[in-house]
Amino acid sequence: MTTRNSKASTERWIWRNIAIAVPRTWEMLQFSRGMDSGRCAFADRYQFRCELNWRTVPGPPDFDRMMSDYSTKLSEKGVEAPKALRLGSWRGVEGVRDGLLTSHYGGYLPGEHCLLELVLLWPDRKQAELERRIISSIREEPVMQGGLRHWQAFGMEAGVHTDVAPFLESCTVNPAHVDMIFRNRSKQREEHFARRGLVKQWLEGSVGDWLHWWLPKDFEMESQTSDTIDGHRLFMTTGTRWSWGIRRFFRQRLRCHAAAWICPQDERLYSVGLISHPSLALTDARAAAAMLSCCGQKGLGV
Questions:
Q1: 56, 59, 217, 239: most buried by Cβ count inside 10 Å?
Q2: pLDDT over threshold 90, residue 170
Q3: Which domains does the chain have, with CATH numbers?
Q4: What predicted TM-score, i.e. pTM, was given to this entire model?
């Protein structure tokens, strides 16, 4: 479950090993899947409010020169009276364009070799405390226990293996349905995380039946078990999937472990599927369940 800070009314997001906390009323409407460069943009009910851009660079930038050039470019684009800003290690420029006050900040994450640009839009008035909280929340997300990378977005919190975490192949976000698929370049490991709502309106049969349907059509099920952990009825499936190998000259056998459950607190259906070469495979489906969280549970398989 996405961690929320009720006192500050913020919600934490973790994307591309970068953590940021924004107001709970802001949603991520745009995102990039690339590691080397990209952006995430958040909006409230009326307009975009925050944009976080990233770009990998060889080393720390010359912020004095960069912000001077940036201020000049903003002036050329019609930004009125750009003013220099500074919050901690973040350097910024503030100005008005088309009647809208905008703050632009630059920062650097040394562990990720990542240059960041944060843009905040203030449609009514500037909220200095909110600006400070957002900037102070941005940090590099460390590797989790077990060598997993932390992703937290759209109500899901998952631990993804380091060799697939940089390769977000797809992210589908629809009302009451979130689906994220990671697949490494060799295609020998795939990790699939999903959350679905309004379960009572569409689920027919058991969660175990649905889990079998959710897995790839060429999946050959070997076993399915169930267990109850902290009030969650967990269904676990193990099997095999065949995939074409290098240059399609031969087929390779992949192991598949999957798990699904309905969280009794939020009544959503959570599912995780791991497909990998036998040499990379986890021991069982319970270990797969440990990689996806709900209602504060840090993985049901733990």
A1: 239
A2: yes
A3: 4-140 (3.40.1000.10), 148-293 (3.40.1000.10)
A4: 0.89
